[in-house]
Each structure stands twice: as structure tokens, then as C-alpha cells.
Amino acid sequence: MLDTNVMYTQKDEGKNLYRKKTYYTLVIEQEVLAKDKDEADSLFAECGINHAAIGDEITEKKDGVETYMVDADYKDSDDAEYIGKVVYDLSDPYAKEEGCVTIDTYADENQLSAKEESDVDTSINLEWESTIGK
């Protein structure tokens, strides 16, 4: 017995059964907030297609055409692209107090945030104090 999803009866006697594979390119574009490109790449590597969700539901069934198989294979991906940095909204004078942030697409990818700069300054001061014996 042949494995097929096409329903047939004696009224179909004399018809031919055909199967055709059609290859589609599926593009998935994802975004993530990360401290740097390496962390972003790591997070992207943990995500992708939920293969359990890929099934015949994504195909049309009409005029007697039934889906035999659906599959998705990884082929290639682009490098992670820097889009912008989360910053306090400069147009809002109370942004820090109110927690209003935005994505600045002009901000330098490698620019430290105010908190990171403060942490670096503290670290440098502690190191300096330890060298002078404080």
C-alpha cells in the first residue's frame, strides 16, 4: 500500500497520482537586545524555527491536492546587524526619572552607557587607590 494523503475511491479509477516537491525560500528576520554582537549572535543561535510548528497547515488544500510532506532546512544567514542603542529619550527632560527610553539609530554601537561609564570610572578609581595604598 502506498503512503499518501490523497483520498481516492473507485470513481477515481484510471486517474494517475502525482507528487511534486516545491522548494521555497523562507526568510526569518529576528531582533534581540544584547550588550554586544557576540551576545546577540549567541542568543540568535539559540532561536530559529520551531520545527514542530512546520506542517501541512501552511499549505493550501484544494481541488484534490493534499500535502504529503513539509520540511525546513537551514541554509545560510547574514551577520547580526547593529540597528541602534537603547538610550534615555533626549526629547524628554524627565526621561531618566520616568524611565522613558528609545532606540537611537545614530548612537555608536561601542559607546558605553552612563551606568557602564560609571562602573568603569569606579573600577579605575579602586585600582588607583589600591596602588597608592588606600
What does this structure look like?
With 134 residues, the chain is mainly α. It has three helices and two strands. The protein has a two-stranded antiparallel sheet. It is elongated and about 95 Å long. It starts with 36 loop residues before the first helix and ends with a helix.
Summarize the structure.
The protein is mainly alpha-helical. It is 23% helix and 6% strand.
Key features of this structure:
134 residues; mainly alpha; 2 domains; two-stranded antiparallel ribbon; 3 helices; 2 strands; elongated
Oligomer category: single chain
The major sheet is characterized as: 2 strands, antiparallel
| Low-confidence regions | none
How would the global form be characterised? elongated
What structural category characterises the helix and strand content?
Answer: mainly alpha
Lateral strand order in the biggest sheet: 1-2
Order of helices and strands: HEHEH
The count of helical stretches stands at: 3
How many domain modules?
2
* Overall mean confidence score, pLDDT: 84
Radius of gyration: 28 Å
Helix share, percent: 10-25%
N- and C-termini, Cα separation: 86 Å
User: How large a portion of the residues is in β-strands, by DSSP E?
Assistant: 5-15%
Please give the number of β-strands.
Answer: 2
